[in-house]
Write a structure and sequence with these properties.
Layout (H helix, E strand, L loop, with lengths): L10 H20 L8 H12 L11 H17 L2 H7 L16
Amino acid sequence: MIKYLRVATPFEDFYRAGLQGTETAARAWAGVGFADLSPNSASALVQRMSTDNVPGWQGPPPGFFYFVLRSDAVDVMYGTQQGFALLGVPYMPHISPPSRWGE
């Protein structure tokens, strides 16, 4: 999805900046890194990100970063053979990929 949203390459820069923004926001908001937030606190921070309501955020706009990350997660879950298998849904692509994703 990211290439269609006109994010400048290399895409790693976008993801690093967004992840750093998330980490910095978690530390400013709760005093701990994102990985150490409780599930409720992590969910609350992600909700704030999705509405561009993160005071002092540095990096790509938080709502846009959330949208890209969410789109990536949906692609991985619903766009791969493994994702379909986890859901118990038969994988029936119109055109099969040349290899499994990530290999």
